[in-house]
């Protein structure tokens, strides 16, 4: 039988386990143990109310029984497309408890992208919200289920259920005590969506052992414990919000998770004050509005001890404003859903915290910085970051041919990030060799947008690149070679949404050009294109 995903060898796993670099409990067990240790402590706060650890754990059991009755079986994949609300956490842990494999997807994705993920993961069910902004996730999910025979169930959080969609609420079985764990630590726990450089999404396999270690080791690095109140501002389905240390790390440490329904500083500051949040995480693009609002309203943010910033490059000037203006410590986080997490140490001097993106979380993280030929560069010189370690994937899910490109023969993941590493091991992200736009922390594969552009009538060639932007970090610019007039941005937008793409993937700017510069092998030379167009 061919493997769905490559794992480290048994000897490597054994060595990691012996040294404590893999968690020996499942993710759902971590919650269960906290529920036993502190039943009356507050685990989760959301617009639906507050849940103690005992209440959360028992609701997870009840939902897990309902899911098992459908049945959703151990090993089956279930897409979870929910915003920051209670049901996300309940569905996540209930699926984990029955041994099913949640595939968390951002609610902002377009319907075609959700369908593609459902197909690639072989999902048996979709869990969606009743409404999300102007989109209708329930109707989209029902249409997807109609086209993919493997999708047997559409479960709707927070709305009435009409066949073939059914309300998640109706699945809660009567209280019947703790359910037995269906998974083992080395089993597949989740499939995460890769930031992506390809047209079809890549899925990242994470086991209970590696994800649990990622979450708990991060919790230790970030000083998380029972007194931590973590405000989840970014989408809960993002890896940063999940395990760096995120909601999994905080729940596994007995702290409180507060779900922020939107990332606006008004909503977030209200919750910081009301709940006494001590920790939160943001992408750099959100910082200017947070700093402005803090100055304008003089909100009481005194409970906030650490503000984590990551997902895209934070500029030093903004970094230096955080301490004085928000009254908390900055921690830079350079992470990836594929695994490796880097943190600036909480006790590091201000200069280091403001100018580096941190150092690897685990002593077992192997990091190489290499030149174009794969040879290591000296400390301080830029090169591509390669990494291998106890919680970094060894290959994507059902994608053997891609693995040859994304991994070295000895299992190092090619991050596509250009970094420098100091003699002390601190990393600075200086650029990227992967063909991607990092728009406000959301990763957009250039080729995916180019495919949409090439589908437009009269478009002969297209190239999408990132350009510096004061608000977004990077904005996406599409260069289009067309027969006749190039399509306008509005035309591109309408066509992409019609094709089921997410709105944030629509290029911020569309420029018609007579031709694109090519490399010796006939690929678009994006470096010279950027230079030629003054980006
Ligand atoms: C520059 N680029 C960064 C940073 C990520 C914690 C934090 C972030 C993510 C994440 C994550 C960066 N400075 N501080 O999963 O657990 C870019 C790099 C990286 C890619 C990964 C976590 N932090 N990046 O952003 O899977 O290019 O994870 O390879 O979405 O984001 O993107 P993603």
Protein architecture, described:
The chain has 535 residues and is of the alpha/beta class. Among the domains are: 22-39 and 47-206, Rossmann fold, CATH 3.40.50.980; 437-532, GMP Synthetase, Chain A, domain 3, CATH 3.30.300.30. It contains 17 helices and 25 strands. The strands form six sheets. Strands 2-1-11-10-12-13-14-15-16 form a nine-stranded mixed β-sheet, sandwiched between helices. Strand 14 and strand 15 (339-343) form a beta hairpin. The longest helix has 17 residues, at 53-69. The relative contact order is 0.10. The model has no long low-confidence stretch (mean pLDDT 95). The structure holds ligand J2J. The site of ligand J2J has 22 residues, from helix 8, strand 14, strand 19 and strand 20.
Summarize the amount of helix as a percent range: 25-40%
Distance between the termini: 49 Å
CATH class of one domain: Alpha Beta
- Rg, nearest Å: 23 Å
Major sheet size, sense and barrel closure: 9 strands, mixed
Strand content: 15-25%
In terms of per-residue confidence, which ranges show pLDDT below 50 for 5 or more consecutive residues? none
Bound molecules: ligand J2J
Strand tally is 25
The 3D shape can be described as globular
Overall mean pLDDT? 95
Structural class: alpha/beta
CATH architecture of one domain: 3-Layer(aba) Sandwich
CATH topology of one domain: Rossmann fold
Strand order of the largest sheet: 2-1-11-10-12-13-14-15-16
Work out the helix count: 17
Please outline what is shown here:
This protein is of the alpha/beta class. It has 17 helices and 25 strands. Helix 4 links the parallel strand 3 and strand 4.
């Amino acid at each position: 039988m061919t493997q769905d995903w490559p794992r480290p060898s048994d000897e490597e796993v054994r060595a990691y386990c012996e040294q404590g670099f893999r968690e020996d409990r499942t993710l759902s067990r971590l919650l269960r143990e906290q529920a036993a240790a502190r039943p009356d402590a507050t685990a989760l706060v959301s617009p639906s109310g507050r849940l103690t650890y005992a209440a959360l754990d028992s609701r997870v059991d009840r939902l897990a029984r309902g899911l098992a009755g459908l049945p959703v079986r151990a090993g089956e994949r279930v897409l979870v497309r929910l915003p920051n609300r209670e049901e996300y956490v309940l569905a996540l842990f209930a699926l984990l408890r029955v041994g099913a494999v949640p595939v968390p997807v951002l609610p902002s994705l377009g319907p075609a992208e959700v369908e593609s993920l459902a197909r690639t993961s072989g999902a048996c069910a979709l869990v969606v919200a009743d409404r999300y902004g102007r989109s209708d996730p329930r109707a989209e999910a029902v249409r997807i289920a109609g086209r993919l025979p493997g999708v047997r169930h559409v479960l709707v959080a927070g709305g009435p259920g009409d066949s073939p969609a059914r309300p998640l609420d109706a699945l809660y079985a009567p209280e019947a005590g703790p359910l037995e764990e269906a998974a083992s630590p080395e089993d597949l726990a989740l499939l995460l969506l890769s930031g992506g450089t390809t047209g079809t999404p890549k899925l990242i396999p994470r086991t209970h052992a590696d994800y649990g270690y990622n979450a708990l080791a991060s919790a230790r690095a970030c000083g998380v414990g029972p007194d931590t109140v973590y405000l989840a501002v970014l989408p809960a389905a993002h890896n940063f919000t999940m395990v760096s240390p995120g909601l999994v790390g905080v729940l596994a440490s007995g702290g409180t998770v507060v779900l922020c329904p939107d990332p606006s500083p008004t909503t977030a500051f209200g919750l910081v004050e009301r709940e006494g949040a001590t920790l939160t995480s943001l992408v750099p693009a959100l910082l200017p509005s947070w700093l402005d609002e803090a100055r304008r309203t003089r909100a009481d943010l005194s409970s906030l001890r650490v503000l984590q910033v990551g997902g895209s490059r934070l500029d030093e000037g903004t970094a230096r404003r955080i301490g004085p203006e928000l009254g908390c410590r900055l921690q830079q986080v350079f992470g990836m859903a594929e695994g490796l997490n880097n943190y600036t140490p909480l006790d590091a001097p201000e200069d280091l915290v403001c100018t580096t993106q941190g150092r690897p979380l685990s002593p077992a993280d192997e990091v190489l910085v290499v030149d174009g030929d794969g040879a290591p560069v000296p400390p301080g010189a830029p090169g591509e970051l390669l990494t291998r370690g106890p919680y970094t994937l060894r290959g994507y899910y059902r994608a053997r041919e891609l693995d040859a490109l994304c991994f070295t023969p000895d299992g190092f993941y090619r991050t596509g990030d250009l970094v420098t590493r100091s003699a002390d091991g601190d990393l600075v992200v200086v650029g990227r060799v992967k063909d991607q736009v990092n728009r406000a922390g959301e990763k957009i594969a250039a080729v995916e947008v180019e495919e949409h552009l090439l589908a437009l009538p009269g478009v002969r060639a297209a190239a999408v690149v990132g350009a510096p932007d004061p608000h977004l970090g990077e904005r996406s610019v599409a260069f289009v070679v067309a027969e006749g007039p190039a399509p306008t941005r509005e035309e591109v937008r309408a066509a992409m949404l019609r094709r089921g793409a997410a709105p944030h993937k629509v290029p911020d700017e569309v420029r018609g050009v007579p031709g694109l510069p090519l490399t010796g092998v006939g690929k678009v030379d994006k470096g010279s294109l950027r230079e030629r167009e003054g980006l």
